[in-house]
Specification:
By secondary structure, the chain is an alpha/beta fold. It contains 15 helices and 28 strands. Helix 11 crosses helix 12 and helix 11 crosses helix 13.
Length: 484
């Protein structure tokens, strides 16, 4: 593998460096990151808004001595001589270069968002920035009115989390339905009703005009009281460095092939800055999956390897369970060669739409069906056949007998890896008696990390239920240590 230079120290660059070190302890890895602070886990940002989760608890773990972290901005790439120059004048030669430059917040052209000096108004926050999340948390009081601008995945999750924590929340969206890239009209309406039941005022088809003192003005309708504005208006990939180096760049990011390789065979890109042919919408899980795949590709350079993309989008929150699998264009009725299955329980905020090609799942949208979402995700990823009793599957009553998975008789805690409470309990009694041991045994908490608190609470409950004579043998790391 020789010398690998990674530009960018966000979740993508951090994960790739970790995986490369785990696969080859002698690897020479240099990570270029301009920020003095280390990277954070974005899956925990909504909890920072609602619970004040400390910044250090959101930090991703530090690297060992085998990873050289150079805290300076990459200024240019000399592809001919295979050298990256940084703003402090240093030169970093490479054999393989990886661009993990991420994406920046898209700020709409809206009057009042920026001050005279061009900086964002102090009332404007981004749920993609951990310090903004903590800043918003500090400002929230019993009468604080928060407006979430944008009804995509992040806007829906943020509005739900804030309202569930008891805050006054209005979601303003230009479109006629929420999460329009992922959901059909029926699913979107269920999600909107779920938000309203949580306390969110949902205003669809509204055009924001100006942020002024205490309110957000809307075209042709009444303004929205706004003490804090949360921007959930999308991102733009950071491609300037790649474009200056002559790489193929478009609005969607740096063009890569199925092996995450750019037009230059020695340069790769992944995460939010990359435009992969199979990726319709980037998520944190996609970023981490790409990092895992690219580590394998770089570690086994003698063999042609690929990143296999599985389209999975999830919206998380207590009472808000949305899972979208595969390409949404397969879900309409007129799709040739596709059998459709629909389940609609509006009164309980539950909905499912499955697109089946033979016995295989081609695409799906599920709302409020937590266990079915976990099982269908597994079937989608493995290509396994869908059980004939589709209703039982959707209601969480059936699993294929030949999967080897435990029956779904309890709650799934880790959706990224489809790990149920019974699986974690069995692993605990087999000797995995703290969160790190359970993670190693079951992979729970190793995806987005949002289930860590639930797994920790289960550990504590199981420990408390253990016989007193054994209790001294179970040690639980302090929360600060686990999240560091």
């Amino acid at each position: 593998m020789n010398r690998v230079v990674i530009i960018g120290h966000g979740p993508a660059g951090h994960r790739l460096a970790e995986r490369l070190r785990a696969g080859d302890g002698s690897a020479r890895i240099t990570v270029l990151g301009a920020r003095e602070e280390g990277p954070y886990n974005p899956a925990l940002f909504s909890r920072a808004m609602t619970t004040g989760l400390p910044l250090e608890w959101m930090a991703l773990p530090g690297h060992d001595e085998g990873v050289l972290l150079h805290r300076s901005r990459a200024a240019s790439i000399d592809r001919e001589n295979r050298v990256v120059r940084t703003a402090d004048g240093a030169h970093h030669p490479y054999d393989r270069l990886v661009l993990a430059t991420g994406a920046g917040e898209h700020v709409p052209d809206l009057a009042g968002l920026r001050r005279a000096d061009g900086a964002l108004d102090e009332r404007v926050r981004s749920p993609r920035c951990p310090r903004d999340c903590l800043g918003l948390r500090a400002e929230l009081g019993p009468n604080t009115a928060v407006t979430v601008l944008g009804g995509g995945l992040l806007g829906v999750e943020s509005a739900h989390a804030l309202a569930a924590a008891g805050h006054q929340v209005t979601l303003v969206h230009r479109g006629s339905r929420l999460m329009s890239r992922e959901l059909d009209s029926a699913a979107a309406e269920i999600v909107a009703e779920r938000l309203r039941a949580t306390g969110v005022t949902v205003r669809l088809g509204e055009i924001p005009v100006e942020l002024s003192s205490g309110e957000l003005s809307l075209r042709d309708t009444e303004p929205v009281r706004t003490d804090a504005l949360l921007l959930c208006t999308g991102t733009r990939p950071n491609t300037e460095l790649a474009a200056a180096a002559g790489l193929d760049v478009a609005a969607g990011g740096i063009a890569v092939d199925e092996s995450l390789r750019t037009a230059d065979p020695r340069v790769y890109a992944l995460g939010d800055c990359a435009r992969h042919p199979a990726v319709r919408r980037g998520t944190l899980e996609t970023t981490w999956n790409q990092a895992d795949a690219l580590a394998g590709i770089l570690l086994d350079s003698g063999r042609e390897s690929h990143y296999h993309h599985v389209e999975v989008t999830r919206a998380r929150g207590n009472g808000l369970e949305v899972t979208c699998l595969g390409p949404a264009e397969l879900l309409p009725d007129e799709t040739p060669g596709i059998e459709h299955v629909t389940f609609h329980d509006r009164g309980r905020y539950r909905y499912a739409r499955l697109a089946l090609h033979g016995e295989r799942l081609a695409a799906a949208t599920l709302v409020g069906l937590e266990e079915a979402g976990a099982e269908l995700t597994r079937l989608h990823e493995t290509g396994g056949p869908v059980p004939s009793n589709r209703l039982a599957l959707l209601l969480g009553h059936e699993r294929r007998a030949d999967t080897g998975a435990p029956p779904v008789t309890d709650k799934v805690l880790c959706h990224c890896n489809n790990v149920s409470e019974s699986t974690l309990t069995a692993a605990f009694h087999a000797g995995a008696e703290d969160v790190p041991a359970l993670a190693a045994a079951t992979r729970a908490t190793t995806g987005c990390g949002s289930c860590t608190d639930s797994v920790r609470r289960l550990c504590e409950a199981l420990s408390a239920a253990a016989p007193p004579e054994n209790s001294h043998e179970r040690a639980f790391p302090a929360e600060e240590e686990e999240a560091a």
